[in-house]
Amino acid sequence: MSDLRDQTGLSAGSVRLAIVGVGRFGRIHAMKLAQMPEVDLIGIADIDRDRGGELAHGLSVPFTHDYRDLIGHSQAAVITATTSAHHDIAAAFLETGSDVFIEKPMATTAVEAEDLVQKARKTGAILQVGHIERFGTLFKRIRQYADRPLYIETVRIAPFGLRGTDVSVVLDVMIHDLDLVIGLVAAPLEEVSAIGAPIFSENDDIASARLTFANGCVANLTASRISMKRERRMRIFQQDHFLSADFDANSIRVIRKSAGAGSPGIDTEDFQAPRSDPLQLELDNFIHCVRTRERPLVSGEEGRDALIAAIMVTDTLKAHHDRLRRSGLVV
């Protein structure tokens, strides 16, 4: 490993930060962090020496093949490695009191997620999970309209790619909507049913789940990474009105029952949310919390709850797979 950046030359009040895992998405994180004046990127770690070394050289940042070289030198860490490595890497930083931002899903099991939450509590470390949709201007607007949802539908589909296939489409894609729906409903999740199938990878590439909450709200979620097009939509139905949100177009249509005399009519309102950079806002929130010790917008507890919901869906899918194998439809 090249020498870690001399900490005597760091900016006053800046956050000494390391990043672990610089694949396609992690590379974007690193480039944004390197441009933030309140951040001193003291090191990059990646198991791919060529990929990580090239990026580190371009950003004039030290590189290491082993993330453990960075522990004790950094005040905070951003972890964008493969999901299966999330727990071990995050735990190593949290145990020394380092603050951690970790991409979703935060771990592969509920036990791992709870362990990270407890480690952060024990050391007083900030633990933030990368549910990026929470930072978009569209979802902030949705929350203003959706205060008592009765029924929710979400669709999140995209063409096939190799990124994320180390986990199922539930942990890779659907978990975004699971997090949003749980936040909107604000009631315990009681029952889950789901179907899905592995098509191009060893894990489920398409899935549909039905969630029932303690307050009676029901949500149907569809996720696919083998579609011919990209689509990210949400429809929320409440008493007297419903809304349709398009996350790609950053737009909302609200349809209400009009309050006029006689037969009820229909009023329609269209809203175009301003474009923003949710990843930048997410990283800004993390650095702000590191400096102020405030609770992040998406805490470790919230990341854990989204993961638990995703695991509930995954467990139901396993039962569905057993039926498929017994019928001979899959081997």
Short overview:
This protein has 331 residues and is an alpha/beta fold.
Strand order of the largest sheet: 8-9-10-7-11-12-13-14
Give the rounded overall mean pLDDT: 91
The CATH class label of the largest domain is Alpha Beta
Low-confidence stretches: 6-12
How many distinct folded domains? 2
Order of helices and strands: EHEHEEHEHEHEHEEEEEEEHH
3D structure, described in words:
- The protein is 34% helix and 26% strand.
- By secondary structure, it is α/β, with parallel strands linked by helices.
- A hairpin with a 2-residue loop joins β11 and β12 (241-246).
- Strands 8-9-10-7-11-12-13-14 form an eight-stranded mixed beta sheet. The protein has a six-stranded parallel beta sheet with strand order 3-2-1-4-5-6, with helices on both faces.
- It contains eight helices and 14 strands.
- α4 (110-123) packs antiparallel against α8 and α6 packs across α8 (300-327).
- The chain has two domains: 7-131 and 280-297, 3-Layer(aba) Sandwich (Rossmann fold); 134-276 and 310-325, Dihydrodipicolinate Reductase, domain 2.
